[in-house]
Amino acid sequence: MTRLLRTNAFRLAALYLALFAASVLALLAFIYFSTADFIERQTETTIDAEITGLREEYADRGLAGLLEIIHSRSTTPHGGSALYLITDPALQPIAGNLNAWPRARQIRPGWISFPVDIKTRDGPVSSTAIASVFVLHDGFRLLVGRDLRDASAFRGRITRTLAWAALLTVALGVAGGLFMTRHMLRRVEAVNRTSERIIRGDLTQRVPLTGSGDEFDQLAGNLNAMLDRIERLMLGMRQVADNIAHDLRTPLSRLRARLEVTLLERPDAARYGEALRETIAEADHLLATFNALLSIAEAEAGSRRETMAVVDLAEVARSVAELYEPVADDKGLALAVEIDPGIAVHGDRHLLSQAIANLLDNALKYAPDGRVTLRARRLVGMARIEVADSGPGVPADRREAVFDRFVRLESSRSTPGNGLGLSLVRAVARLHGGDAWLEDNEPGLRALFTLPLADSRALPATRNAA
Amino acid sequence: MKLLVIEDDREAAAYIAKGLSESGYVVDQAAEGRNGLFMASSGNYDALIVDRMLPGMDGLALIAALRAAEVRTPVLILSALGAVDDRVKGLRAGGDDYLVKPFAFRELLARIEALLRRGSGSAAATKLRVGDLEMDLLTRGVARGGQEIELLPREFRLLEFLMRHAGQVVTRTMLLENVWDYHFDPQTNVIDVHVSRLRQKIDKGFAKPLLHTVRGAGYCLRPE
After folding, report:
1. Which of A280, A291, A466 sits opposite B185 (nearest CB)?
2. Do A145 and A50 contact (CB within 8 A), yes or no?
3. What is the DSSP letter of B90?
4. Span A306-458 CATH architecture
5. CB-CB under 8 Å, B85 with A350
6. Domain ranges of chain A
7. Can you tell me whether residue A447 is helix, strand or coil?
8. How far apart are CA A219 and CA A207, in angstroms?
9. pTM of the predicted structure, to 2 decimals
């Protein structure tokens, strides 16, 4: 319960209730006062009308006629609440249902209020009455009034009704507020429970969605998306750790074995030199693998995103193509370059260069002859880099797997490489908000990667190819 | 030539110092930042080799302090942080070159030689000459023995870099960084192919080759 009191939801509900109750009370007060006022006015209007009528009778038939009418009205129970009195100039009653001139106080000019005892079946009841007084000729006075017993009973009933209404409103408000708070707390509670389970180490937990698409669902959806990303990263990390264990341990033990065997052989200086050179080459290979892994990890972590700028992908592609052109030439391959002018992308020039270099590297490595084509295209909203070759290609069912770290096709075991090239290409593409995949070039392989275009106006003026 | 190695890893420092001594340099060592700064401030050294992460005082802070004190000794930064941003930060702090750990000793030696040569200052020259090979930086013309040689723009820059470091070993990484501005190792021997093309153009048909391959290290352009 104390937790309930501390929650924001409860505070909001309480505030809402207070405002709601205040406005309902104001409304009820307004109803009460206007109703009470209306009843009072109605009584006064009735008295006024009666006096007007009696005055006319008096003008027509004089005092005798008036006395007759008053007498008859006083004896027949006329609504039960009408009060009449005619007095002589000495205020002695002559006719009417009041025994004496009342001890009244004036409430307004022409209007008086006084206590009165009303005879009912259950005996006399004291009540209040209001009356208007009309002075006849010769100092005689006519008093016409109404006992307010009914009016005050009515007023009492209204007051009670309104009080109950107010009470009911507050009760309903409290119940509703508690219900809403509970409801909201339950949703928050669900998020908290899931978070706690995740903190305890179960990363497969997800916040349940109600499917209503409300703010809580959106929050839960975002949390789940975040958890998915974290899980993917963790998985990637674990994979890297496993791969490192396997693919770095193997060459390391080979290196160690080579040194041990060399020592056992009791070699001469020339053999020593050779063994050392082989060891250095092996160490260099290890370092290259290690650096490639770091580059991939760096691209995947997205830490380079802050240093990205608008670069011309066409320029980047052309520059890498120029680096590889002599290599293709040496292997007797034709390197065709088809580059659209001015492809502005928001990216990291070094990583993009490296990704394109890796694709060209692969194509030139595996294509036995024919032609390798590098295309850089500016499409609608995105840029696409494509490297096509006429080599042996990659079987359709392995085209995804080769993007994983250290995955190499059996057929390519004999060629140098570490199985990290495509992993980096994909990591770089995804870092830039794009993707990388392989397609059949019939025959051969087509490696593609896309990234979103940037505003080409942000591109620095094209440099001359110096 | 006197060098100062500021490196807290004793073993690495000993190995660097030994290698440099064997290459003919006089080497002092400092194992801690403040001490290193004190020694370097004397200005008695031709080049400094500074580890980036040091006890007492961070390597970059040390370099910044040296530069603020107007000590212009060339500095080679050694660091395990190899991302482009890290290099940029190191060079902005006043370093002259940046070498990522782990490195090959030949690479370190080649870069130190390059730094020392830069210090001696011949950058304003408009003509470079190695043996009978001449390069005019203004007309961008190259000739050997009076015979004009046609070079592509990139080949020209490659040769220019080699000529500016004539007599020194230049590694593949140095070429990739300085001629192409790439900071990654291509899997294939792209640099070798470019160099052998250049060699075809400048050495073919001449009795004495100028462009030599240094096994396990890189290349060297020298007249002999």
Report:
1. A291
2. no
3. H
4. 2-Layer Sandwich (3.30)
5. no
6. 2-158, 215-301, 306-458
7. strand
8. 9
9. 0.63
